[in-house]
Amino acid sequence: MSSQLHTLITAEEIQNKVQELAAEISADYAQTPLHLVGVLKGSFIFLADLARALSIPCSIYFVHASSYGDRQSSSGIVKIQHSLNMSNKHVLVIEDILDTGLTLSTIMEELNKQQPASLKVCAFLNKPERRKADIDGDYIGFTIPNEFVVGYGLDYGELYRNLPYIARLENVEDSS
Ligand code: IMP
Ligand code: MG
Predict the structure, then answer these.
(1) Does residue 151 form part of some domain?
(2) pTM, entire model
(3) Is 99 a catalytic site residue?
(4) What separation in Å is there between the alpha carbon of 33 and the centre of ligand 1?
(5) For the domain that residue 85 is a member of, what is the CATH number?
(6) Domain interval for residue 107
(7) What is the pLDDT of residues 132-158, one digit of tens each?
(8) Residues 96, 99, 138, 155: which is the catalytic one?
(9) Is residue 8 included in any domain, yes or no?
């Protein structure tokens, strides 16, 4: 089946939003050192842009999250790989998209065990219609309808992560 891309959020809209989020985060963490934890792979482009737009010092870490089964039929079992110690630190988790919320809630649970000084979430995209876990982002870029999207870090079968914009991918089978 052939797939077609339809632009949903332009590169310019993305860059404006990143500046807005960065200004808000810089103001909120002006008095405290900030530790960004990016969720691989999807967050790598958003995190790179956001970090460069922050006006405060921050350190950068990554965790790797994978859910079993193919992406669109997310099994609900999420495996997290990391070697972090965020005890007493102010942590902001950076995600590409908050979909069912299962990935982020697992990551938050893991990080909470380390007793950080604070723990918040910044998600570039939010698809509230698909939520299964009780989690909302603290900072959200764009809320989108229940459509499969690619670009700006998000993939379909490892492709399209490098698009500088967000596109809806049509003709994708969604088995969830
Ligand atoms: P969740 O655990 O269901 O919230 O899923 C989070 C992960 O699923 C994201 O980090 C993405 O990697 C992936 N994902 C969810 N929706 C989409 C989409 O529309 N396009 C590409 N990847 C997605
Ligand atoms: Mg991801």
Answers:
(1) no
(2) 0.92
(3) yes
(4) 29
(5) 3.40.50.2020
(6) 15-144
(7) 999 999 999 999 999 999 999 999 999
(8) 99
(9) no
